[in-house]
Amino acid sequence: MNRYFCHLTGLCLLAQTALLGSALAEDFIIVQSTTSTQNSGLYDALLPEFKEMSGIEVRVVAVGTGQAIKNATNCDGDVLLVHAKSSEEKFVADGYGLTRSDVMYNDFVIVGPASDPAGIAGRNDIALALQKIAETKAAFASRGDDSGTHKKELSLWNSAGIDGPAASGSWYRETGSGMGATLNVGIGMDAYVMTDRATWIAFGNKGNHTIVVEGDPAMFNQYGIVDISPDRCPNVKTDLADQFIDWILSSNGQDAIAAYQRDGQQLFFPNAK
Amino acid sequence: MQDIQAAFLAAFNLIVSLDADLFEIVGLSLTVTLSAVAISCLLGFPLGALLAISRFPGRGMIVVFISSLMGLPPVVVGLTVYLFLSSAGPLGSWQMLYTPTAMIIAQTLLVTPIVAALTRQIIEDLNGEYSELLRSMSARRRDILSTLLWDARYSLITASLAGMGRALAEVGAVMIVGGNINHVTRVMTTAIALETSKGELALALGLGIILVLLSISINAALMSLRTNMERFAYA
After folding, report:
1. Is the Cβ pair B39, A9 closer than 8 Å?
2. A170 and A194 share a domain?
3. What is the least distance, in Å, from the CA of B59 to any CA of chain A?
4. Same domain for A71 and A162?
């Protein structure tokens, strides 16, 4: 018996060493990021171009903005690329980040079932639309996960003068999961969902949901990038991280973002200063 | 229904086109899971056997404890390993977070209790049959252990398969400590979770079908190994 398992372990340890060896041999950075940028395929378009130019491998950990910031606060990353400006600024003010820069934007939209129970299709006033949803008690699926999208949604309910989360469990349903999972749930229960446009365009399971509310300036969605401070996190690879940030803010990086399309639509609009 | 048909088609296409990304992901899944199971067996077999033949105060409590660890939620194990391996954690200087090694550690913690608990039961049953004989030979403890483990080897394969099933199927732990990084720590289960979150349900289920096929192949291979060994042993 031992013979078989030693054999097995020996092989596995070898394979493992090979894996680790290859990981250490290359220059890489870890980017703590939001799910929308990964699920929409943006990184698959951007990162190979950057790697070819710089030789730096970018490893993306895609989680909600809340978790991404928490992980970065634990020094488990070199760069933070998320979409919750006030949280990013707090991250810098608290000394975890060096500088925060605008990278790109798109917008949030409300998607809903074709039956449109709240009668809000075609509107561009988000406050009014949310009021109608609350009034008709139409099902609304919320992320409920402290992500950038969730924070934005809460602020929109707040501006509309409605305490949506107070109805949690009845028509307001918190999934406590990522954007894609929440869309799957919302489509399954014919609920309205607020999502960033990039995730929606790239989403493969739209069911009979369509965009019902869009175009309100309040639904602007800004993405920012922050390099993590070596004062707080001595292991951080500031040099490599800044090369990546400089590139994404450069005209090359910004052009690459603008060039990325799905179904003939541009998903992110570069706006670095 | 359409999605289910599309899933089988997606699985078929991925397999026949020898998709490079798929092979990379399957390879990493196997490396992580088999390493974790192998380490778990090295720890769990002796630990379980020792518990089976020893009598000491508090033994019952340890047996209950290890058995209940079989039900550890992977997310909890993932979170614990994350907190230890995080740069802010006690083992942060190892720089192991978001590597396959971190995933192996998490899965080893999940699988070892399963292997140990099942081994304890198997060896205890066998010891019931052997104890008089072994005592009459006044065998040393070490020899008793190795004799029992060797004679129980076919049943222990089943114990290791139970552990492997757990490791191959879990997503919660490897997602947190591996980070599902493309070409680095993406395995079958995290890829399925990712495709689900992209709404690519057919592709997600297609990957699931491939994972099941993989699991069947491994089980079949070990089972036939067991049958062949038995035939050889009793021929």
Report:
1. yes
2. yes
3. 26
4. no
Q: Which helix (H) or strand (E) holds A58?
A: strand A57-62
Lowest mean pLDDT among A120-124, A213-217, B138-142: B138-142
**Tokens at A14, concatenated:** 């070898």
| Total of domains in chain B | 1
Contact call for residues B121 and B159 (beta carbons, < 8 A):
no
**Collapsing DSSP states into helix, strand and coil, what is residue A247?**
helix
If asked whether residues A210 and A257 sit together in one domain, one would say no
Query: In this complex, do B100 and A16 lie within 8 Å of one another by their Cβ atoms?
Result: yes
Contact A9 B149 (CB under 8 A): no
Answer whether residue A3 shows pLDDT above 50: no
Contact A134, A162 (CB under 8 A): yes
Which of A237-246, B44-53, B226-235 is the least confident region?
B226-235
Assessment of whether the complete model's pTM goes beyond 0.90: no
* B198: its two tokens: 């992209």
Distance CA A110, CA A148 (A): 15
Number of domains in chain A: 2
Whether B124 and B50 have beta carbons less than 8 Å apart is answered as no
Instruction: Please tell me whether residues A205 and A256 are part of one structural domain.
Output: no
Which of A 105-144 lie inside 8 A of B, CB atoms? none
- What is the extent of the structural domain holding A136? 107-219
**Tell me: the pLDDT tens digits for B92-108?**
989 999 999 999 999 99
